[in-house]
Amino acid sequence: MKKAVAVVAVLIIAGSILAGCSSPSPSTPTIAKIGLGHVTSIAKSRDLVVNEDGTKTPPAGQVDTVIAAVAFDQNGRVVKVTIDTAQTKVDFDENLQVKSDLGAHGETKVELGNRYGLSKVSTIGKDWHEQIAELEKWMIGKTVSEIKSLKVKERDESHKAVPDIPELTSKVTITVEDYLKAVEEAYNNAFDVPKGAVSLGLGHEISISKSKGYSLVDDIETLPFAQVDTVIAAAAFDKDGKVVRAIIDTAQTKVEFDKDGKVTSDRNASPPTKVELGPKYGLTRVSTIGKDWFEQVAELEKWMVGKTVNQITGLKVKQRDESHPAVPDVPELTSSVTITVHEYLAAIKEAYENAK
User: Fold this and answer.
1) Could you write out the three-class secondary structure of 116-155?
2) Which of 44, 189, 309, 343 is found 20 to 30 A from 234 (Cα to Cα)?
């Protein structure tokens, strides 16, 4: 009898162990969609000012482009999110000539890290990249509606929308309005992705090389302007590092001045990207294949799917002319992409390197 009881006990224990082993463990949410959002502002651009003592404060064009790459599950909840800001300034001198290095490679706030310097004035001792990381963590598992409804407060004139909830008050003291907007835009513009996406990355390339100073040649006056070209890319990758979906865009933003150094561009405008401009960008008028920029970049995105970053950056290119030093030179793309692509390839590479 004792042996029978012992056997039954062993069977019960074994059954319990097996039952425990077969219980499903919480699974990582599947990426169903990815989106790329942005908010661009030139509001902080500065006029040339003549001071009371006769000295001059030179003008500057400043372009702030907030960018967000976001992955969502099938219920619209955030699975992964990366937010950054390209805060790019073009300085001019008193004579309205460009003072900034036109060949410099622009850095975002995340790339600047502690060099951005917010920790020196922050009441919580955290720099921008640390605070935005906390905001990203808070967004995980939430819908865009929940994210948009974040309770905020005005801290001062420069901080109109600082988080006002216990989870964030000791971690995030920056104003977050534009970051929430960028995530909402990413959701509104999101694309379905096939099964297999396990990571998401954000990449960018920033250039001010097309900015110009004032000139007067043969009675032809050219007014100064700052131009900031911010290439942005979001990409989802599978477990083998192959692209599952890529989204590429460019915020080509101008700040124009008159001959007295006053900003003539609308400081309150939110300049559209090349994709948002669509046919209004006007490339079809000069394109040899009759396709505008947004159509050509869509073809490039399709070509990237299923390829590794090494295969993508190894794309064979050719110089079409001085303005187009890297046009695709492979049969799959020659009839559909005639724009120069090296910055888009570099942005995808960075997206892969930053993927999480």
Assistant:
1) HCHHHCCCCCCCHHHHHHHHHHHHCCCEHHHHHCCCEECC
2) 44
Q: How far apart are CA 181 and CA 40, in angstroms?
A: 11
Domain residue spans of the chain: 27-273
Q: For the segment 89-107, what is each residue's pLDDT rounded down to a tens digit?
A: 999 999 999 999 999 999 9
Beta-carbon contacts of residue 71 (< 8 Å; ≥ 6 apart): 31, 33, 34, 78, 79, 80, 81, 197, 200, 236
pLDDT(113) > 60? yes
Distance CA 348, CA 243 (A): 9
* Separation between Cα atoms, residue 108 and residue 62, nearest integer Å: 13
What tokens were used for 118? 């917010």
pLDDT per residue as tens digits for the range 298-345: 999 999 999 999 999 999 999 988 889 999 999 999 999 999 999 999
Please choose, from the candidates 326, 332, 330, the residue with its C-alpha nearest in 3D space to the C-alpha of residue 344.
326
